[in-house]
Every structure is written in structure tokens, then in C-alpha cells.
Amino acid sequence: MAPIKVMTIFGTRPEAIKMAPVVLELAKYPTLVTPVVAVTAQHREMLDQVLQLFRVVPDHDLDIMSRGQTLFDITCRSLQGLNDVLAGERPDIVLVHGDTTTTFAGALAAFYHQIAVGHVEAGLRTRNKFSPFPEEMNRKLAGSLTDLHFAPTATARGNLLAEAVAPADVFVTGNTVIDALLATVDEKYRFTAPPLADIDYLSRRVILVTTHRRENLGEPLRHVYQALRDIVSEFADVEVVFPVHKNPRVREIVQAELGGLARVHLVDPLDYQPFANLIARSHLVLTDSGGIQEEAPSLGKPVLVLRDTTERPEALDAGTVKLVGTDREKVYAETRRLLVDRDEYRRMANACNPYGDGQAARRIVSFILWKHGLAERPEPYSAR
User: Fold this and answer.
1) Residues 359 and 179: beta-carbon distance below 8 Å
2) The pLDDT value given to residue 286
3) Does the keyword Secreted apply (predicted)?
4) Which residues contact 230 (CB under 8 A, 6 or more apart)?
């Protein structure tokens, strides 16, 4: 029997982080699997950083990123490029990840070629098509085209079953981001350049901040930054590290509200390795990112989510994250609470992370092999 050809398609840094463990796992079965990696490079520089870290070399690189690109540009260029790649490779199954525009385009291109689709990190839902935008609909549309749904949690599986997906086509794996994180964080890691190298992480309480969501642009972000300014003014031992997104609309407001402020370090977006190790050394995290809601709790870091909705309710139920939105007074109050209330901090820091055990990629690959009669059926992930 010829090896099954498995093509992974991704295009952004978050996808690359979460798909790298799957790519590396596929490579462990050279007699059973022919792995093919295709990237759209919806992100370019940030994608390349992750590829280099995990030593993943794409077989096909569409290099679609352009200055000022729109969702229309990304979708059309991805579809056109993937048409040629799929026509040439004819894989047995295509794996896409999560909720990016590359994800939707990859699933749609595979469907047009009548190739099976596996969706890694399937089943997350807010049930608000504009929050997060466009991710919620990218994920749902890709799910409608999917044959094998790799749900990270039992809640995600339940969402899929509620949408009439056949139970036999859904498999709970845990989240591959935990695989990547555990392989990257190292207590011996040292930052090499200021300001990160100059911070005393033992005596200072570092608040890590990330913001980038389209729905928060403008006044919502301004309110968050004003709350941070209040916190830094009140607590002399707090240092804020803020890798600032390259979106000019984000940067303009950040500079206006936080630029030049003592103990607020505005830095360029970090490569994944220093970023993962910065999470590990932080006291708490303020973010509107989805992935960090999974990563930080794995390292015992409370997360305040700067959004009104989340497609990751398991973290809310477990108590590892809290939704605080973007109201200045609420962001300030909840951040202050974690700085002064040691019991509340310990409660969030010690809550059980529901997102994985570092074995998600193994489960995904084993399930694909089982579906093709090449392995025993693996046991699904269960949060303890």
C-alpha cells in the first residue's frame, strides 16, 4: 500500500505555531505518510520566524502577502495559488487550522478538488458572526467543508454535534498550541537585548499586553491603554511589556497613550521563542488574542481577556481567564484586583488548564492513520 499523502496548509504565525507539531509528527512515519507543506504566507516575516524555529521547510510557498492587503486579496490569491498546488500534488487529505482566511480558502480549494479536509482546532464558536471578525465565519465555513474534525476540547466537540456533524467524524485531541508551547519554554532561556534582558523578573511584576482585534480598534483600545497607565502609576513594582502589533491604527493609539511612560516597554512583535518564554516570566496577561487564552494558563498565568465574547468558554469555566472587555474602569479594577488580592491571583493561576497535555499532534496523526487502516484508534483527550 502506498503511503497516504497528507498536505498541511497554513499562512499565518498562529497557524504555523499550532501546525508545526503536526508537521513534525507526520514526518515520524515515512513509510506510512508522505507529508507536504504548503504555505500561503498571508503573513510573511512572522510566518518565517516560526518556520525557522521549528525547522519546517515548505514544499510550496505562495508568498501572497502584499502591502495593504484586504480580505478579498488574501482569499483570491490563496484560492488561485492553491488550485495549482492541489492539482499537482493530489493529496489524500488536506489539513487546515483554526480560523484564518487561509484556513477557509484552503478548505474551499480542497473541496473544489474533491479532496478530504481535516480541520485542526475545529468547533470553536462565539455564535456572533462579527466577533471575532472574520475568524468566526472562517471557522464555520471551513467546518462546513470538513470531513475530519479535530476538536481541541469536549466543548468544541459538543458545538459540532449540535450542528449535526456526525459523531464518528469528530475526535477530541487537545490543542496543538500546548505541544508547541511545552517544546519551546525553557527555564534556562535568556533574553539577549534590552529592554527584556534588563528586567528583574524575580522582583518585578510583569504585565504582558497584546492587542490587535479589528473590533477593538479606536476608542476601545484607547480605554484599555488608559487603564494600564493608571495601573503603572499606582504600582511601583509593575512593569508592562507590550509587543505592539504592526497595524498603524494600533501603533498610533499606543504611542499617544503609553509612549514614553516609565516602566512601560513598547517593543516590536516578538518571535515565538522569546514570546513564549516571556509569558512564562510574566505575572499576568492582558490580551484580546485567542491563542494566548490557551497558552498562558498552561504556564500558570492569569489572563484578562479584552473582549466581550470568547470562542474558548472552557477557560472561563475553568477559571483560568476572565472576560473584562475594554471599559477603562473595569480593566483597571480587574487588573488591580489580581495585583492586590493574592487569593484571587492564586485561584486563577492554579486553575486546571483545559486545553491539552502536549500530545495533540500525536492523536491527530494517529487518528488519520487509523482512518486509513494503518494504526489502532487512539484514545481521545480528556481534561482532568
Assistant:
1) yes
2) 97
3) no
4) 328, 332
- pTM for this predicted structure: 0.86
Query: Is the CB of residue 205 less than 8 Å from the CB of residue 277?
Result: no
pLDDT tens across 52-73, in order? Answer: 999 999 999 999 999 889 999 9
Predicted pLDDT of residue 2: 87
Helices vs strands, H then E, count in the chain: 15, 13
| Look-up of cell digits 471599559 | 327
Q: Which of 327, 301, 7 is nearest to 181 (CA)?
A: 301
Residue 107's φ and ψ, nearest 5 degrees, are: -65, -40
DSSP state of 59: S
Place of cell 519551546: 184
Report the side by side order of strands in the sheet with 170-172: 60-61, 33-39, 4-10, 93-97, 116-120, 148-151, 170-172
Residues classed as catalytic: 99, 121, 135, 212, 214, 245
The answer to whether 210 and 228 have CB atoms below 8 angstroms apart is no
CA atoms of 382 and 280, how far apart (whole Å): 24
Q: Could you give the CA distance from residue 379 to residue 363 in angstroms, rounded to a whole number?
A: 8
Do 93 and 107 contact (CB within 8 A), yes or no?
no
